[in-house]
Design the sequence.
């Protein structure tokens, strides 16, 4: 199981992250498409090649090719939108809020999966990227679509744990490289 492979990459000092991965892999608040799509989108959002590879190995058999592609697309479009809209939200200049973004975002209108699923994945990646503007926008769409708050919370819990796993794996790799250079 690839979740176990991720757990094996995480050192003992981060045991809580390992335990949370197990819990979230068996999360029942979300259906399989929402859960595993969130895992994939967040792995891409967290930007660690090992985590992406292992999460996709676990998720691919549980997702249609369209859902796998849409989860990746959610991470890709949020990598762009979270920078732009975080700027808009942070700026004291109100004019930016009235200006059109002039960025292509066609996938948001036609993600190839249920719109609510795509919005959930986008919200989770936006949480990783710290874009309050996008979190609020996606949350409003999800609430209007009837998505339960417990589902949103579950998706953000996945985002938090996958992001932590990626940071820990990156940190461990940096330590190994540093030790190798020192030797």
Sequence:
């Amino acid at each position: 199981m690839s979740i176990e492979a991720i757990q094996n990459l995480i050192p003992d000092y981060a045991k809580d992250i390992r335990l949370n991965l197990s819990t979230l892999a068996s999360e029942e608040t979300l259906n399989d498409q929402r859960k595993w799509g969130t895992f994939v989108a967040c792995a891409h959002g967290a930007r660690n090649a090992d985590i992406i590879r292992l999460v996709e190995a676990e998720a691919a058999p549980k997702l249609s090719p369209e859902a796998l592609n849409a989860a990746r697309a959610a991470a890709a479009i949020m990598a762009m939108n979270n920078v732009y809209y975080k700027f808009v939200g942070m700026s004291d200049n109100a004019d930016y809020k009235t200006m059109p973004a002039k960025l292509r975002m066609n996938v948001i209108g036609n993600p190839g999966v249920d719109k609510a699923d795509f919005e959930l994945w986008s919200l989770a990646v936006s949480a990783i990227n710290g874009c309050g503007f996008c979190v609020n926008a996606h949350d409003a769409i999800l609430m209007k679509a009837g998505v339960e708050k417990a589902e949103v919370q579950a998706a953000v819990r996945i985002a938090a744990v996958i992001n932590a796993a990626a940071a820990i794996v990156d940190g461990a790799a940096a330590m190994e490289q540093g030790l190798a250079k020192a030797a």
Notes: The CA atoms of residues 69 and 112 lie 8 Å apart.
